[in-house]
Amino acid sequence: MRPGFLQVTEIFYSIQGESTWMGLPCVFIRLTGCHLRCVYCDSEHAFYGGVPMSYDEILEAIRRYPCRTVEITGGEPLLQKNVIPLMELLLRQGYRVLLETSGALSIEAVPPPVIKVVDVKCPDSGAFPSFYFPNFRWLAPWDQLKFVIRSWRDFTWAVEFVRAMDLIGRWEVLFSPSHEEFSAQALARAILATGLPIRLQVQLHKYVHLAEDERMDPAVWDVIRSRRVPGPGSRAPGTQ
Ligand code: SF4
Questions:
Q1: I need a surface site. Which of 13, 83, 113, 137 has the fewest CB within 10 A?
Q2: pLDDT of residue 237
Q3: CATH architecture of the domain formed by 5-213
Q4: Which among 41, 101, 124 is the best mutation to test ligand 1's pocket, defined by most ligand atoms within 8 Å of the CB?
Q5: Which ligand 1 atom is the nearest neighbour of the CA of 47?
């Protein structure tokens, strides 16, 4: 990718659904490409395709939405090195910046003020083991570690990981039931039984179901649609 450009799948405005910022309005920049294949992935449309957009074009797109919180997601956004200057640019312009990442790549270069929501892939994720352990060095106190739970094996492993790595009190720990695969009620009971302050979170946006034309500004959509070259497995942008 040329300097100053990123491969983008979509830029849309919705409700943040997967962190302690859950429920707040947020502009999402979904970058293209991921090297993992989690079995619960809901972003396969970001694996291929996408369109090249300059930093200026991305900034122009997000300014169309009435919101000062921006989340960079994917795919795996850290696969594109040009994402780091974009984060710096957004911070300089006064945006609150969140980053969703798989936990499999180094977060060392991510500017510290960025709020990082870092996955720890569990045994039944389909992307295990992938956690990059040196990342503990670069997590800030406001960052969050997220475990998606598909099975009791995942739950047991995740609790052991939380204890062994002494995560409680250092970072927010989130356990999220894999949507329609694991019971939120069962997970809630199991978290209570641990006695640990683990935060249960559900993927809120999957309950809200905003339509794509409610979330994507027509002008942003036009840019993406006009440049899009579909790749294998790609589908229309706008699904969250
Ligand atoms: S890391 Fe995220 S985008 Fe990549 S396969 Fe897993 S869930 Fe999907």
A1: 137
A2: 45
A3: Alpha-Beta Barrel (3.20)
A4: 41
A5: 3
d(CA 168, CA 173): 7
Distance 36 CA to ligand 1 centre (A): 6
Chain Cα centroid distance, residue 135: 16
pLDDT digits (tens, 9 = 90+) for 40-59: 999 999 999 999 999 999 99
Q: Is the peptide bond before 50 cis (omega within 30 degrees of 0)?
A: no
DSSP SS3 for 103: coil
**Residues with beta carbon inside 6 Å of ligand 1?**
34, 36-38, 41, 43, 74-76, 102, 127
The DSSP H or E segment spanning 2 is none
Measured CA to CA in angstroms, residue 98 lies from 11, 91, 123, 146, 226 at distances of 14, 10, 26, 14, 28
Distance 136 CA to ligand 1 centre (A): 20
- Tokens representing 15 are 């409700």
Using a cut of 0.85, tell me whether the model's pTM lies above it.
Answer: yes
Q: How many C-beta atoms lie closer than 10 Å to residue 103's C-beta?
A: 23
Closest ligand 1 atom to Cα of 34: 4
Domain ranges of the chain: 5-213
Residues 6+ apart with CB under 8 A from 50: 7, 8, 9, 31, 32, 33, 228
